[in-house]
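JOB MANIFEST
job_type = single_chain_structure
chain_count = 1
residues = 167
[input]
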Amino acid sequence: MPNEETGRLVTVKTKFHREAVRPGGINRSGANMSADRSIAALRAEVDSQIAGAVAPLVALLRNWGEGDAVKGCEWAALTRDLAGLAGRHLLTEVAMHCFDCLDAVVIDGAEMRVEEAACYADALVFAEQDMCRGCDLQPYAPLLGDLDKLTSRVIGRATPAAVAEAR
């Protein structure tokens, strides 16, 4: 094709290109390292907040008294939500059962005995050891099954008048 014009190359320099090649600019590996440090700091902060919610919750359950059940509900909900965010699935499940039980005590007037509260405290301490970061909860099925039965038993003690009033 003899009548075609030859193309010409044009160099385009973007802001990213200027920042990347200037002295003191950051390269890709430096950006990745910075991101890894930020994520590690965030993870440490979430883990600290989880510990800050679990410790008083366990203390409350070990010294069970119904007067503090409302605060226990808040700590259990915080633990459940933060553990889910951090990918700590076993702790999430245990905190969820604990919240359901405490919620039944607060809202429905269910009775939770001292021995039952101690079971939740022991389960929280075990789950807090962070042995299960993956999604495979199968090895912990007996524990979760027992907590489900215990939660159902406590919820079953709800007073009919409190349940009717809550609705």
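[summary]
Residues 15-166 form a domain with the Four Helix Bundle (Hemerythrin (Met), subunit A) fold (CATH 1.20.120).
The chain has one domain: 15-166.
exit_status = 0
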